[in-house]
Design a protein that fits this description.
Number of strands: 17
Strand content: 15-25%
Distance between the termini: 44 Å
CATH superfamily of the largest domain: Metallo-dependent phosphatases
Strand order of the largest sheet: 6-5-4-1-13-14
CATH topology of the largest domain: Purple Acid Phosphatase, chain A, domain 2
CATH architecture of the largest domain: 4-Layer Sandwich
Number of domains: 2
CATH class of the largest domain: Alpha Beta
Structural class: alpha/beta
Number of helices: 10
Length: 447
């Protein structure tokens, strides 16, 4: 059986105000072609289909057009879609019953039956090979929100320094996964593979802080890699935008069968050098035979000039040296590279005409200026923006909280105490879950 693993599309994404729909449209057409040319039996989309819980109509149209194109061009293809932390579970699940007879399995949120118990049957999906025989059982675990966190007693023998709530949460989350894995083992027959798909943060993963929303108590509680058992041949993960095999926190070698496919396009300037890809996975019976990444063609470049901040007098010649557009080539505007300019200012240096000087140097350049980064003088190697230059929409809630704390402390270098930061991250996660699901709950499902 052959499976294709992708995730973190973020349809409807805007990069500093620029809509990415052309790039997404090209990726989706390319992905359909890959499913056909590679004779894929099953496609797994491991969460964050959309960039927001209420995506624009064009993003939703692109999603459904993609599903229709896949089923039209490869009728036997099975598709599994799970919800991520950016997705609305209800929005994804709305079409689930209509699409299930077409071999499209959607789990926007953790499925439950009529009495509220975990619906293990819906989360355990048979996958068929090209002959129609069941070749694998896939356990689909969408992003677990606070309302999904079961209460659990503290683990005996756990480190005394570890907060009781952390031990409880980790034990409860492990229990949810274990129930689903146990169900799959009951279904499995000899020669059939066990596969898992999840949207979560695992310990050892490389995080892109510019664009990955903080999850699981603000990334303070990454799940251990061993939450996925060794008898599972492949684990298809979503959430981290950099394609990677997991490097466990204990220093062990990366696990070839536990992978983040990464995002198909760069979602921030921090992701320019990421190897954006999808992952083709072949199984031989119940064993993993081969894992082959396929690079996604980059349809619109992102540029940082210079790569590290330099004084303005050194930056302007670099901007003037950028390729220029041909006269009358206005129609190419939507294809121009998206540009971030990085300037280092010295302490006390004032540049009231910074933007006009940069825009003048870019006259005629084949690039679209998105933002100018001016790191604080004390952080010459940082790409962080100064308060005056940062649009509020580009800041994470945690960034705003830190800046307000520093302002209240009258100390621009003040560090938020760990207990306060942990409480703030938990509050943000609960608020985001309430906004997306129409409900607010705390750890253990308590309102």
């Amino acid at each position: 059986m052959r499976l294709l693993h992708t995730s973190d599309w973020h349809l409807g994404h805007r990069l500093h105000g620029v809509l990415r729909e052309r790039e997404h449209a090209r990726f989706l057409r390319w992905l359909v072609d890959q499913c056909v040319s590679e004779a894929v039996d099953a496609l797994v989309i491991a969460g964050d289909v959309f960039d927001t819980a209420n995506p624009p109509a064009e993003a939703q149209r692109a999603y459904y057009q993609f599903l229709a194109a896949c089923l039209r061009r490869r009728p036997q293809l099975q598709i599994v879609v799970i919800g991520g932390n950016h997705d609305s579970p209800a929005r994804l699940d709305a079409a689930a019953e209509v699409l299930r007879p077409l071999r499209v399995h959607i789990l926007g949120g953790l499925p439950r039956d009529e009495v509220g118990a975990l619906d293990k049957e819906r989360s355990t999906i048979p996958l068929h090979d090209h002959t129609g025989a069941v070749a694998a059982w896939l356990v689909a675990v969408p992003y677990l929100r606070p309302i999904d966190w079961p209460a659990a007693p503290p683990i005996e023998g756990a480190a005394a320094s570890e907060p009781a709530t952390t031990r409880q949460l980790l034990a409860g989350l492990r229990g949810v996964y274990d129930q689903l894995f146990a169900r799959a083992r009951l279904q499995k027959r000899p020669g059939q593979a066990l596969i898992a798909a999840g949207h979560c943060l695992l310990a050892g993963g490389a995080v892109s802080l510019d664009s990955e929303r903080r999850i699981q108590l603000g990334n303070s509680l990454p799940l251990p890699c061993d939450i996925f058992p060794s008898d599972f041949a492949y684990v298809a993960l979503g959430h981290l935008h950099k394609a990677q095999q997991l490097s466990p926190a204990d220093g062990a070698s990366a696990s070839a069968h536990i992978r983040y496919s990464g995002s198909p396009i760069p979602l921030s300037f921090a992701e320019i050098d990421y190897p954006h890809q999808v992952v083709l996975v072949d199984f031989d019976g119940e064993n993993l035979r081969e894992v082959r990444p396929i690079l996604v063609p980059r349809s619109r470049p992102l540029l940082c000039v210079p790569p590290q901040p330099l004084p303005l007098d050194e930056v302007l010649p670099l901007l003037r040296a950028l390729p220029r557009s041909e006269p009358g080539a206005e129609k190419e505007r939507a294809e121009r590279p998206l540009l971030e300019v990085r300037v280092r200012l010295t302490p006390g240096e004032l540049r009231p005409n910074l933007r006009p000087e940069i825009e003048e140097a870019l006259t005629g350049a084949r690039a679209q200026l998105l933002r100018i980064v001016c790191p604080p003088p004390t952080e010459s190697n940082s790409a962080a923006l100064t308060d005056a230059e940062t649009p509020l929409l580009d800041l994470q809630p945690e960034d705003v909280f830190v800046r307000l704390f520093q302002r209240a402390s009258d100390d621009p270098a003040a560090i938020v105490p760990a207990p306060q930061m942990a409480l703030f991250r938990q509050l943000v996660e609960q608020v985001e879950s309430g906004l997306e699901d129409g409900a607010s709950a705390g750890p253990g499902g308590a309102p």
